[in-house]
Amino acid sequence: MQKKTYQFTAKKVDYYFDADFSYLARLIDKEHTVLVTDENIFQAQAKKFKGWHTIVLKPGEQHKVQATANSVIEQLIARGADRKTVLVGIGGGVITDLTGYVAAVYMRGLRVGFVPTTVLAMVDASIGGKNGIDVGVYKNLVGTIRQPDFLLYDYSFLKSLPETEWINGFAEIIKHSCIKDAPLFRELEKNKLKYYQKDKAALGKLIRRNAVIKSTVVEKDEFEQGERRLLNFGHTLGHAIENMYALSHGQAISIGMVAACSISAQLVKFKDSEKVIKVLAQYGLPVHTDFDRKKAFDILKMDKKREKKEMNYVLLEKIGKGVVKSIPMVQLEKIISNL
Amino acid sequence: MQKKTYQFTAKKVDYYFDADFSYLARLIDKEHTVLVTDENIFQAQAKKFKGWHTIVLKPGEQHKVQATANSVIEQLIARGADRKTVLVGIGGGVITDLTGYVAAVYMRGLRVGFVPTTVLAMVDASIGGKNGIDVGVYKNLVGTIRQPDFLLYDYSFLKSLPETEWINGFAEIIKHSCIKDAPLFRELEKNKLKYYQKDKAALGKLIRRNAVIKSTVVEKDEFEQGERRLLNFGHTLGHAIENMYALSHGQAISIGMVAACSISAQLVKFKDSEKVIKVLAQYGLPVHTDFDRKKAFDILKMDKKREKKEMNYVLLEKIGKGVVKSIPMVQLEKIISNL
């Protein structure tokens, strides 16, 4: 196990990489902890949950809504959870987002930890303190920014991870390489998903490298005034079409990244769209851009990154260098309709 | 108008005392602001709202629930509210708590200001950043601590304030005097509600003095690790019986203060219970303690101030000096059943 600590604005967060789930019992007091997970994980990893108070939710993004948060809150009340209770979200982004959100508002804030169980949650969703729920078609419209107390990485959860979820996670890994890490992009170009699935050491190194990229960005700009916005590469359009077409997050942002590359070529002379498209396809991600432009733009207008009549859009100047451009909504509407 | 600024952990808050509502237009941009108020205020003060985007809610504590927050969120979406939108809660504690809560979670946080329109909101509820909603019988079980950007005090709202609401507010004023300000307690002993209702200058001074007491306590201890707990005097039992008997907040904490005086006499030799009871009665507040002990204790067990097997209870050593005592729940159960 390797421990690493990041200092955010109001809190330091401990990361336990390459750890065993059982280590959780050394971090927190079983009696005053409630685990939150979903049915899939609970069934696949039943042994791990023995002896822990656990709330088990239905799996899937469609349950990342206020009604589920209400249900968790009612179960916490029924269990007599108080301010000293610690919540631990064990799952993918849906579980960690929802658990972080409930922890932020229950009795005005409980301590919370995460055990990410998907590649996507390990490299992205569980890091950085953003939590939340969806409202209708709007992803993460409600939530807070509040750091967890710890993150525990147990790669054994990945053994039961479906192929589609692996692909999902690599969308965020490719994103990180595009905006921040050209050498990582070249590594990804050389390999395939199978390589990381088979080589435990390479996978551990890759996950940690990506967790570090994200954590370093967030450490510099927790409340997204500048640098952190880069992490939204592919996400503006991605979020708009994700619920529209019931895409996985990875699929949605892959299409979003392809679109952002095309916009980058138009506005900041980005030349390597083809390379990005090739890597995305190589890791099983969709690269087409046939979606309902008008409908997507209508949803995109409500994106949190819009500020009055402009949208902060993340573009690439070159591979490894993302930039934020403020694009007037009228111009953006035209660009998207012509994609 | 007098401006005063308090510096809290993450934010400074501007207080505009003795201001006119119209000053709001100089603080914020009308086009990107949404006011939140209730039907009573909206009808009584229709002129003030002209030209402002306004969300009007049903009045009353029974609407301080997640369903109302959901409805506000949906109306914000429908109005295209984005991260640059400012919310302003105009009302009593129900409105400022709910508006503060929605502002804390909508798009992970909007700027928010309050225009308290009741004595209680002016001296207490709108100050200190605590926001939230009730869940079933549990008051403020869900919420956050997040400071508003500004508070604007326009005493003209008090002209239409019902007598019961005046009494409500004086419960918190008496509370402040008990825990922090013996000279204020003596001033209150000498006067009656009518005096403050008739003398605008005396009222303005009283409200400001109380706003300062609360703000100073919160400034020292925003996240309630010590000093801020004193503000819960009368509130532990008060919250338990408030929804149980559909009492007003002032009535509930008045009974809670009487009980806390009695516990103070038992545990820290407080000698002036009679004086406190006399002042409460003098301002029209109930001082009996006939309530269902068992049921009240069952609700009280879920109070946010409980920590595992102990409750942080606020007692009085003398008038003007509150103290926090950790009382084991088993002992507290006995004390309450014998009140």
From TrEMBL, chains A, B:
<dbReference type="Pfam" id="PF01761">
    <property type="entry name" value="DHQ_synthase"/>
</dbReference>
<dbReference type="GO" id="GO:0009423">
    <property type="term" value="P:chorismate biosynthetic process"/>
</dbReference>
<dbReference type="InterPro" id="IPR056179">
    <property type="entry name" value="DHQS_C"/>
</dbReference>
<keyword id="KW-0479">Metal-binding</keyword>
<dbReference type="GO" id="GO:0009073">
    <property type="term" value="P:aromatic amino acid family biosynthetic process"/>
</dbReference>
<dbReference type="GO" id="GO:0005737">
    <property type="term" value="C:cytoplasm"/>
</dbReference>
<feature type="domain" description="3-dehydroquinate synthase N-terminal">
    <location>
        <begin position="55"/>
        <end position="167"/>
    </location>
</feature>
<keyword id="KW-0862">Zinc</keyword>
<dbReference type="GO" id="GO:0046872">
    <property type="term" value="F:metal ion binding"/>
</dbReference>
<keyword id="KW-0520">NAD</keyword>
<keyword id="KW-0547">Nucleotide-binding</keyword>
<dbReference type="InterPro" id="IPR030960">
    <property type="entry name" value="DHQS/DOIS_N"/>
</dbReference>
<dbReference type="InterPro" id="IPR050071">
    <property type="entry name" value="Dehydroquinate_synthase"/>
</dbReference>
<comment type="function">
    <text>Catalyzes the conversion of 3-deoxy-D-arabino-heptulosonate 7-phosphate (DAHP) to dehydroquinate (DHQ).</text>
</comment>
<feature type="domain" description="3-dehydroquinate synthase C-terminal">
    <location>
        <begin position="169"/>
        <end position="305"/>
    </location>
</feature>
<dbReference type="GO" id="GO:0003856">
    <property type="term" value="F:3-dehydroquinate synthase activity"/>
</dbReference>
<keyword id="KW-0456">Lyase</keyword>
<protein>
    <recommendedName>
        <fullName>3-dehydroquinate synthase</fullName>
        <ecNumber>4.2.3.4</ecNumber>
    </recommendedName>
</protein>
<dbReference type="InterPro" id="IPR030963">
    <property type="entry name" value="DHQ_synth_fam"/>
</dbReference>
<dbReference type="Pfam" id="PF24621">
    <property type="entry name" value="DHQS_C"/>
</dbReference>
<dbReference type="InterPro" id="IPR016037">
    <property type="entry name" value="DHQ_synth_AroB"/>
</dbReference>
<dbReference type="GO" id="GO:0000166">
    <property type="term" value="F:nucleotide binding"/>
</dbReference>
<keyword id="KW-0170">Cobalt</keyword>
